[in-house]
Design a protein that fits this description.
Elements: H1 5-8, E1 9-20, E2 23-26, E3 30-31, E4 35-44, E5 52-60, E6 69-75, E7 79-80, E8 89-96, E9 108-116, E10 120-131
Antiparallel strand pairs: 1-10, 2-9, 3-9, 4-8, 4-10, 5-6, 5-7, 5-9
Length: about 150
């Protein structure tokens, strides 16, 4: 029997799509012991007047966020309503387990998305790729998977 795509790729983090006020939103921390790679997908809907959206991946030493810091080179170019990108655009960020600061014990990743200036429609998902233990565990918010 062949494996299903939902067994190879798991939804492991979510920033719910909503009219998000100015501020930072984050997914939960995801252990890279479970996945070889993660893919963050940031979705900007209708941006408010002069609004901006920034997104980045952060790393920590455990699931509670100990020592949290940004992962170098893992941030999008700011999405802006005033710029050429405007509303209704997406961005992606990839990270592999070996890109973490493993020397200093960093093992977990989360996505942080910040809306600034004006409330804007946005959301994001964090996908676990290449599960080390198949099938990988999905986020608790996933209520159904059709096989």
């Amino acid at each position: 029997m062949t494996s299903l795509m939902s067994e190879k790729v798991q939804l492991v983090g979510i920033i719910d799509p909503d009219a998000n006020a100015a501020g930072a939103l984050t997914t939960g921390w995801v252990s890279m012991a479970a996945f070889e790679e993660l893919l963050a997908i940031i979705m900007a809907g209708d941006l408010g007047v002069s609004a901006t959206i920034d997104a980045k991946l952060q790393q920590a030493q455990d699931g509670s966020g100990t020592g949290a810091k940004d992962i170098a080179g893992k941030a999008i170019t700011q999405l802006t309503q005033a710029g050429t990108d405007k509303s209704n655009k997406q961005a992606q960020i990839n990270v592999r387990a070996e890109e973490l600061d493993r020397t200093n014990g960093f093992t977990h990743v989360r996505l942080s998305m910040t809306t600034a200036v004006a409330t804007s429609d946005s959301g994001a998902i964090l996908l676990g790729m290449c599960s080390r233990y198949s099938p990988g565990a999905a986020a608790a918010s996933v209520i159904e998977t059709i096989k």
